[in-house]
Amino acid sequence: MAKAELVFGVHAVRALVERDPAGVLEVWLQARREPPALRRALSLPAAAGIAVHRVARETIERMVGSGAHQGVVARYRRSAAEAIVTLDRLLDRTPPPSLVVVLDTVQDPRNLGACMRCATGAGADAVVIPKRRSAPLTAAARKAASGAAERLPLVTVTNLASALERIAAAGLSVIGAAADAERSLYDADLRGPLAIVLGGEERGLRRLTRERCRQIVSIPLHGPVESLNVSVAAAVCLFEAVRQRSTGC
């Protein structure tokens, strides 16, 4: 059985209650502070069995060791109904995925969460990460994702290079983003089934990852800025794809 974890933040906890109420074991709310959106979620029939404790702010801060909890913490264990999405399941589904984000060794949980939030906002089907040297889906990542981590599949693969080959074989165009690429993002055709690959905070795209990309593009920058945070780069790339798909060019 999966180990229970603490999840904090209004949007993250609300999304868990709405998506997998059977997995939410109990919730702690800061006394005299109950966000309306969370109150509505906890009033759903499916949430009837969730124990709710109203406690002082200091109690919550001792639990999570952070002041960014927004007055709510949940103890969560993935239920049997909440199936883990594998790469095979993602690629074999109907309809097939049309937009996937691949993160090559992003190691900051907050960056992982922010990328998942951007991907969800752009209508992506999943985020794919390698099992090793990647940030796990921690409470900090869920908080940064602001509810997206509970709605968007996070697919973990053992070998990222092999996974990119399988993604390409499934019909998605694999396009990597790197600051040193000569081709501009805005000159690339992002209208078809697409996997956008972004590198980690320190090294960017690794060699084997770059070799599995059909093309490498860069985001044009001006002034002394040489690169963007990975979550910002993800947003720029994703919403350029959204723009092209909505306008047809």
Please provide a written account of the structure:
- The protein is α/β, with parallel strands linked by helices and about 250 residues long.
- It folds into 2 domains: about 5-75, 60s Ribosomal Protein L30, Chain: A (2-Layer Sandwich), CATH 3.30.1330.30; about 85-245, SPOUT methyltransferase, trefoil knot domain (Alpha/beta knot), CATH 3.40.1280.10.
- The chain is about 35% helix and about 20% strand.
- It has helices at about 10-20, 35-40, 55-65, 85-90, 110-120, 140-145, 160-170, 205-210, 230-245; strands at about 5-10, 25-30, 50-55, 70-75, 100-105, 125-130, 155, 175, 185, 195-200, 215-220.
- Strands 7-6-5-10-8-11-9 form a 7-stranded parallel beta sheet, sandwiched between helices.
- Helix 6 links the parallel strand 6 and strand 7 (about 155).
- Helix 5 (about 110-120) runs parallel beside helix 9 (about 230-245).
CATH class of the largest domain: Alpha Beta
Return the CATH architecture of the largest domain: 3-Layer(aba) Sandwich
Q: How are the strands ordered across the major sheet?
A: 7-6-5-10-8-11-9
Mean pLDDT: 91
CATH topology of the largest domain: Alpha/beta knot
What's the overall geometry? elongated
The domain count comes to 2
- Strand/helix succession: EHEHEHEHEHEHEHEEEHEH
End-to-end gap: 48 Å
Percent strand equals 15-25%
